[in-house]
Specification:
globular, about 400 residues, mainly alpha, Growth Hormone, Chain: A
C-alpha cells in the first residue's frame, strides 16, 4: 500500500474510533444507562445485567460472525454495518426514555443493549482485519493508544458533568435527547470509516455453526494462541475489580453524585495520560505491556485489600480509593492496548480473524462465569473480592512472561 493511503487509513480509523468512544462515554452502562434505568423505574435486576450483557453479548457470537466475515475480501463494510446498528440501538434507548417506564422500559433497555452488543460484535471482528491490512505493524499500537487517550479525555468531560449540580436534575426528556445525540456519533463514524482505503484480502469458505465450533480446537493445537487466551482470561481482573472499588467507596462515603463523577474523572485521566504511553510501549513489546499492566493491577488490588483490612481509617479517607481507582484504570488501559496489539501481531490473514473471534467468544463466556465472583461479596466483602481478583492478576502476569513474542 502506498504511504499516502496508509496515512489516510490511519487518520480515518483514528477519527472513527474517537467518535465511537465518545458515544461509549456518553452511553456508558456504568453511568448514563444505569442512571436512566433508575429514572424510568426499571426493575432492580436491570442494573445488574447492563454491563454483562453489553460486554459478553459482543464477544460470544464472534466465533460465528468470524465465519461470515472471513468470506469477504473487503471488510470495512462490516464495520460500517455494525456502526449503523449501534446508532439505531442507542437512539432506540433514547426513545425508550421518552415513551416507556417501569418494567416495559427495563426490558426494552436490555433488549436494545443486547442488539447493540451484537452489532458491536461485527465491528470488533472486522476492525482487527482492517487495521491489520491498512495500518503498518509498528503504528497499530500507537493508533490504539491515541484512541484510548482520546477516550480518556472524553471520560473526564463526562465525569465533570456528573459532578455539576445539574447532574441531579437529569430527567427522562434530557436523558433521551442525550442518548439520541450519542447514537448519531456512530452514524457519523460509519460514514467516515466507509472512506478507509482497504485493499482486498485473503478469503475463506463459509462455515456453518458446527464448523465454527470446531475451530475451537486451535485452543488445543495452537500453543502460542492458547497461552494468550489463558493470560487474557486472567487479566479480566482489571475490568471485573473496578466496580468493587466504587462499592467500597460508597460504603465509606455514601452515594453522592460527585462521588461517581470523581471515579469517572479518575478513569478518564488515566486513559488520557497512559493510553499513548502504553501504545508506544506496545509497538516495542505488547507482551511486556500485558505483564506490566497485570502487575500494576495486582499490586493495587493487594494494597487496597490490606489497607481496608488493617488500616480502615486510611481507606475511609476521601482520597485513597479514587487514587487507587486511578492506578487501576492506568493498568486496565495497558491491558486493553497490550492484548489488542498482541492478537493483531500474532497472526495474519484469515488466521487473524479466527484468533480474534475465538478469543473473544471464549472470553465472553468466561466473563459471565468469573463475573459471578460478586456473589462472594456478602461473605468476604468488596475488599476481599478485590484481593481475590488481584491474585488472579498475578497468575496472568506469570503466564504472560511465557507467551511468544509478537
Amino acid at each position: 500500500m502506498a504511504q499516502p493511503d496508509t496515512d489516510r487509513a490511519f487518520v480515518l480509523i483514528l477519527v472513527s474510533s474517537f467518535l465511537t468512544k465518545l458515544g461509549d462515554a456518553i452511553a456508558s452502562p456504568k453511568t448514563t444507562l444505569a442512571w436512566l434505568a433508575t429514572t424510568v423505574g426499571a426493575p432492580p435486576f436491570v442494573l445488574g445485567f447492563l454491563v454483562p450483557v453489553r460486554e459478553s453479548g459482543s464477544m460470544i457470537p464472534q466465533l460465528f460472525v468470524g465465519g461470515i466475515v472471513r468470506q469477504l475480501p473487503i471488510r470495512k463494510w462490516v464495520w460500517v454495518f455494525g456502526s449503523c446498528g449501534q446508532f439505531l440501538c442507542i437512539a432506540g434507548i433514547g426513545l425508550t426514555a421518552w415513551f416507556l417506564e417501569g418494567v416495559a422500559a427495563g426490558w426494552a433497555i436490555l433488549l436494545l443493549i443486547a442488539l447493540f452488543s451484537l452489532a458491536r460484535c461485527f465491528n470488533s471482528v472486522a476492525s482487527k482485519d482492517v487495521l491489520g491490512k491498512a495500518v503498518p505493524k509498528k503504528r497499530r499500537g500507537r493508533l490504539t493508544g491515541w484512541a484510548t487517550g482520546a477516550a480518556g479525555l472524553l471520560s473526564v468531560i463526562v465525569g465533570l458533568v456528573l459532578m455539576l449540580p445539574m447532574t441531579g436534575q437529569l430527567d427522562e426528556s434530557l436523558l433521551g435527547s442525550l442518548l439520541v445525540g450519542a447514537g448519531l456519533l456512530w452514524l457519523i463514524a460509519a460514514g467516515i470509516y466507509a472512506q478507509v482505503p482497504e485493499q482486498p484480502g485473503e478469503v475463506g469458505d463459509r462455515r456453518n455453526p458446527l464448523e465454527a465450533l470446531q475451530r475451537l480446537s486451535i485452543l488445543v493445537s495452537d500453543k502460542p494462541f492458547r497461552r494468550f487466551v489463558i493470560t487474557r482470561a486472567l487479566l479480566m481482573c482489571s475490568a471485573l475489580s473496578a466496580p468493587f472499588y466504587v462499592a467500597l467507596a460508597q460504603r465509606n462515603y455514601g452515594s453522592p453524585a460527585y462521588l461517581l463523577g470523581a471515579f469517572v474523572v479518575s478513569a478518564g485521566v488515566a486513559g488520557l495520560v497512559s493510553g499513548p504511553i502504553w501504545g508506544r510501549f506496545a509497538d516495542v513489546s505488547s507482551k511486556r505491556v500485558m505483564v506490566a499492566a497485570a502487575l500494576v493491577t495486582s499490586g493495587t488490588g493487594i494494597a487496597t485489600f490490606v489497607v481496608d483490612r488493617f488500616l480502615p481509617e486510611l481507606s475511609a479517607t476521601v482520597w485513597f480509593l479514587p487514587i487507587a481507582y486511578f492506578v487501576l484504570s492506568v493498568a486496565h488501559s495497558g491491558v486493553r492496548v497490550g492484548r489488542k496489539t498482541y492478537v493483531v501481531n500474532l497472526a495474519t490473514g484469515n488466521q487473524r480473524t479466527d484468533y480474534v473471534a475465538i478469543s473473544n467468544t471464549t472470553i465472553g463466556v468466561l466473563l459471565l462465569v468469573v463475573g459471578s465472583v460478586g456473589l462472594l461479596t456478602p461473605i468476604i466483602t468488596s475488599a476481599g473480592v478485590i484481593g481475590l481478583l488481584a491474585l488472579m492478576g498475578l497468575g496472568g502476569a506469570a503466564l504472560g512472561t511465557t507467551m511468544a513474542d509478537a
